[in-house]
Design goal:
The chain is of the alpha/beta class. The protein folds into four domains: 90 residues, Alpha-Beta Plaits (2-Layer Sandwich); 170 residues, DHBP synthase; 136 residues, 2-Layer Sandwich (Nucleotidyltransferase, domain 5), CATH 3.30.420.360; 198 residues, Nucleotidyltransferase, domain 5. 32% of the residues lie in helices and 21% in strands. The strands form five sheets. The protein has an eleven-stranded mixed sheet, sandwiched between helices. It has a seven-stranded mixed sheet with strand order 28-29-25-24-23-30-31, with helices on both faces. Strands 17-20-19-18-21-22 form a six-stranded mixed sheet, with helices on both faces. Strand 15 and strand 16 form a beta hairpin. The longest helix is centred in the last third of the chain and has 27 residues. The two termini are 51 Å apart.
Length: 773
């Protein structure tokens, strides 16, 4: 039979995951000759054989690809018939080439694999007790890569030349460390050390760190993508000290626990939640506290749930080897809104009055990457933060736009940016609050780096939020001039909805968008809308919650009792409202009774008063009226505590919400809801039952409006987006109603309900708009 030379180009996550050794072994088993190499951002394979051989090779490669790899596409071209002159006599792995361009698919950071962990714990192994042990199946990737192809010389591991032992493993195609760019050992790799006013001499700095934590000290521990602040969780004192030093008095802290058996001591979990916790990504998963919750109540005060994660580096596993603590606090070591600390000198300087000791190492972190956070709703996962372990894995946008290069810069809080190139959308790691100058600088650097990794040399369009004062909007204007690219501003909730639609590869849908804040096309603050959208990149607002006054603007966000007054103002007698506020809620205002009068004057004169339809603000107002919260110490605090309180009540009350038609939009009256809350309080109804009834009333009313909108447009899919839909109860109520009415319900599963996926939605909208021209 005739033999041919086949040229294969494999696209996907195929670099840094042991793909070339797998190709090598498969070719050897099949007695095929040729070569394999990294080429730009893909893998190139040349094989020679019969047509049947070539087809079988492609099938086998897809079947037996490395466990960490993903193949998006294999392009096969039969080049020529094999002759004596062009015949290969062996199959080899050859030096990488930078010849081809294209979009990079860099693997995310991966948790340590069982084989490497066993070596670390094996006293007879060369890698015994070495915290940076890694192979092709595990270890850092995105956080240490500078450019593609993914070779050691293009990573921060280039600072650590391989010793003879590691080089032997690195150059052996049959070894799992063959071209494992993060591989190293105690003789040639990074070193960890304990620090306080200088390096502390210690034969075992990790064991010493565990002892210091157990004694109640706070440690700053440098990891693979940033730094954690770490303390014990079994008693209140260390956590209270950490809160005092950080100024975060109520914000919940995530914790790390050594294994799922220990986790049972304080949280409940399903098999699906366990599967995510134990996945190679090792995210934080928010779980319900168990009845026998044994950790300090200061860890997540006032909440029914707790964020936990499992160890994902050798250093983490070694820390837990010497402690009897069931868990350690592991919270990002950065001041609120600022980027994570990654430089040793900066870590010591910025955390001088926070950490007692520092466990540091000398490997450079090139790309900051916070821990990812996931919460289940309706039995399915959804991201609160999509970052380490998932970034920079792209989404398939080939059905949206494959011709334009688009950069989307997101909103202002919980920001990510996204790059769309060659039909792949790459959301960035979590960036943070870009109203902070340092975070904006981090974002600019991260944009340049991701553009380099994706080989995106030119940008056709730049997408930004509609809010004119966002720093990201201003940055988009600067970048549009730098790249000579058209800037397109996208409405915030349209982008929320578009990210959901793109994730589920839909052509049209109706979406309930409910969150805290988003600049509307009318100049008001939206946050409780029902939208119809389709793949032309346009939408229709069919109504939602009523616009309500926010006396003092952002002050109503920090002190939600002001927001409650704004919502009640037109529905109550002014003097009665004044009396209730002074009698029952004066201490909720920063300046007491005097501020009640000032707030009423602002409402009377419409002075320094914005208007919002935000469902988040309504939920916050209910929370403070019920005495569940007083003010907001962190984003979402009041609403989260409302949800936790509602779980303790029976779902037995009915609150009916009214709506009216205005300018062809259905407007839901939230003022009457808060009046009902006050009446129920006066009637002696349990706070927990009122909280539950309010959540149900809002969820069902929005679901009714969504169903009516879907009927009007003839679409059968209804989805939910926005930070409100991290709330399990509200999500479940909407899903139940929608499905009972015969519609398909969708929610975020691989993307964020919150602002973390707004940039992805911006990319989709501009992609649809430009693709339909």
């Amino acid at each position: 039979m005739k033999e041919y030379t086949a040229h294969l180009l494999v696209d996907g996550i195929v670099q840094g995951v042991g793909f070339r050794p797998t190709v090598y072994r498969l070719a050897k088993v099949m007695n095929l000759n040729g070569y394999v190499r990294n080429m730009g951002n893909i893998v190139e394979i040349i094989i020679q054989g019969t047509i049947d051989d070539i087809n079988l090779f492609v099938d086998e490669l897809q079947e037996y690809k490395p466990v960490r790899s993903e193949i998006n596409d294999i392009k096969v071209e039969i080049k020529e018939e094999v002759t004596q002159e062009n015949k290969y006599t062996d199959f080899t792995i050859i030096t990488s080439s930078n010849k081809l361009s294209g979009s990079a698919v860099i693997p995310p950071d991966m948790s340590i694999c069982d084989e490497c962990l066993n070596e670390i714990l094996n006293t007879k192994d060369h890698h015994y007790y070495y915290p940076f042990t890694a192979c092709t199946n595990c270890g850092p990737r995105f956080t240490l890569i500078d450019e593609v192809p993914y070779d050691r010389k293009n990573t921060t591991m280039d600072d650590f030349p391989l010793c003879s032992f590691c080089n032997q493993e690195y150059t052996d195609p049959l070894n799992r460390r063959y071209h494992a760019e993060a591989t190293c050992c105690p003789d040639c790799g990074p070193q960890v050390y304990l620090y306080k006013d200088g390096q502390i001499p210690s034969r075992d700095p990790i064991r010493e760190a565990s002892r210091l934590i157990d004694e109640g000290n706070i440690l700053a521990i440098k990891g693979i993508g940033g730094t954690h602040l770490v303390c014990k969780t079994s008693t209140d004192d260390a956590i209270e000290k950490l809160r005092e030093r950080l100024g975060r008095y109520t914000q919940p802290f995530a914790c790390m626990t050594p294994d799922m058996q220990t986790a049972k001591l304080f949280v409940d979990y399903t098999e699906e939640e366990k599967k995510i916790l134990e996945s190679v990504a090792r995210p934080i998963v928010v779980l319900n506290k168990s009845e026998d919750y044994c950790l300090s109540k200061k860890l997540s005060p006032g909440l029914h749930n707790q964020g936990i994660m499992l160890p994902y580096t050798g250093l983490h596993h070694l820390l837990f080897k010497y402690t009897i603590e069931p868990a350690y606090v592991m919270t990002s070591a950065n001041m609120p809104g600022n980027p994570m600390l990654i430089n040793n000198e900066e870590i010591v300087d910025k955390l001088d009055n926070i950490a007692d000791y520092y466990l540091l190492h000398n490997r450079t972190i090139l790309n900051r990457c916070d821990d990812s956070v996931i919460r289940f709703r309706n039995g399915k996962p959804g991201f609160i933060r999509r970052s380490r372990g998932y970034v920079p894995k792209p989404f398939d946008f080939s059905n949206i736009n494959v011709t334009d290069n688009i950069l989307a810069v997101g909103p202002e809080l919980d920001v990510t940016f996204s790059v769309l190139k060659d039909g792949k959308c790459y959301p960035s790691q979590h960036i943070g609050n870009t109203s902070k100058f340092q975070t904006l600088e981090f974002m600019e650097d991260a944009i340049k780096h991701l553009l380099k990794l994706t080989r995106c040399d030119n940008i056709d369009y730049i997408a930004a939020d509609m809010h004119p004062e966002f720093n990201t909007t201003k940055l988009a204007k600067e970048l549009s001039e730098e790249y000579d690219a058209e800037m397109i501003q996208v409405q915030h909730h349209h982008a929320h909805a578009a990210s959901l639609m793109a994730e589920h590869k839909l052509d049209e849908m109706v979406v309930i968008a409910a969150d805290g804040v988003g600049y509307g096309e009318d100049g008001n603050i939206w946050g409780g809308e029902v939208l119809y959208l389709n793949n032309t990149g346009h939408y229709i607002n069919h109504g939602g919650l009523e616009l309500q006054p926010m006396p003092g603007g952002d002050l109503s966000t920090k002190y939600p009792i002001r927001m409650a007054m704004g919502i009640l103002y037109d529905a109550m007698d002014t003097e009665e409202l004044r009396r209730i506020m002074k009698t029952n809620y004066a201490s909720y205002f920063k300046y007491g009774e005097k501020e009640v009068d000032i707030t009423l004057k602002q409402l009377e004169n419409n002075f320094n008063t914005a208007y919002t339809s935000s469902m988040g603000r309504v939920l916050d107002s209910i929370s403070v009226l019920l005495g569940i919260s007083r003010n907001r110490g962190y984003e979402g605090e009041c609403s989260m505590k409302l949800e936790s309180s509602a779980r303790e009540g029976f779902d037995v009350l009915d609150i009916l919400l009214e709506s009216r038609l205005a300018d062809d939009r259905n407007i839901i009256n939230t003022s009457s809801l808060l009046v009902d809350v006050l009446d129920l309080i006066n009637s002696g109804v349990l706070v927990e039952e009122i909280a539950c009834a309010c959540q149900r009333a809002l969820a069902e009313k929005l679901a009714q409006l969504a169903v009516a909108t879907a009927k009007a447009h003839g679409t059968d899919v209804i989805g939910v987006t926005g930070g409100v839909f991290y709330n399990e109860f509200i999500s479940e109520v909407v899903k139940t109603y929608v499905e009972q009415e015969g519609y398909v319900f969708v929610q975020h599963e691989q993307t964020c309900s919150g602002d973390g996926s707004v940039s992805m939605g911006q990319c989709a909208i501009v992609g649809w708009q430009k693709n339909s021209i």
